[in-house]
Amino acid sequence: MSLDKQLLILRRPDDWHVHLRDGDMLNTVISASAEHFGRVLVMPNLVPPVITARDATAYRDRIISALRASGQEHRLTPLMTLYLTDNTSPADVVAAASAGVVHAVKLYPQGATTNSASGVSSIQKVMAVLEAMAKHGVRLCIHGEVTDPTVDIFDREAQFIESVLVPLRQRLPELKVVLEHVTTQEGVDYINGGGPNIAGTITPHHLMINRNHMLAGGIRPHYYCLPIVKRECHRLALIEAATSGDEKFFLGTDSAPHVQGAKENACGCAGVFNALSTLSCLATIFEQAGALDRLEAFTSLNGPRYYGLEANSDTVTLVRQDTPVEQVKNLTCGAQSIVCFDPGRPLYWRVAESDNARKP
Hints:
The chain is α/β, with parallel strands linked by helices. The strands form 4 sheets. A 6-stranded parallel sheet has the order 6-7-8-9-10-11. The chain has a 4-stranded antiparallel sheet with strand order 1-2-12-15, covered by helices on one side. A 3-stranded parallel sheet has the order 3-4-5, with helices on one face. It has 12 helices and 15 strands.
């Protein structure tokens, strides 16, 4: 890492939680991730979901084809995941991971978020899979929210930790877990005290906005995501965790594109599309915290370490300018737009260039 007041050179970041979708949407958004990231951990919640090794291989092939069509085949490496269901076979999961087809398995509580209808209805129904994963070192990525309708939406992460994650990890302490898109002080505290086999990803939008930004003065549907943004005290706890340099915390953007009509709707979809603005947002947050020297750990080092991979050897360069960076322009998918994340404040860091080490 190289740093001065106006120039920041980082090992190329990785994104340990991204939604690339499929079809026309995949072809539209793939360049956004390839522009800044070296590797992406691809979420499996398609319709139908990515359940088997064959599904994961076919999806990876479609991603590679989209990268090739965009001229960026050698700039981005997709890392695949499997979608855990009540009927997932332990042997299939272990075989897929051992063969290098997948790098993690994703647990969605049934009904917790976009395309989670096939998710886990009860942790007991997948215990055999989790035991096999613990035995063979397969990582479990968790959308950590309960779906009990009697639990307030702002309390669902904390309740999941208490009622599901704590007993699960007491039973299987050797299971390697990533609590994804952490949004609460409770999540930060649990990860900090949880020992070496748990880590957490944090998104740029949860670092930039709180629930007032989404709700005060009118509803802003493009800030609506799951887990939902929380109180300011929780945002500050996330900033402290992200900027601490602690290797337990690393970047997962949870970049989740929807067309504008699906967001601005009587029942709008959850998801923030932030792939193009992530690094500018993070540099701003870390600069304000006096922690720019720790940005590379969060974006580029901690994630590969937890997943047992080497950090990228190529770099990205960010430049600080005196005037605000121009707002990222929306993308076009067919006849509709995909609205890019606007943090609602000026950003002064822009991505200037990447080296070409990945190109043949």
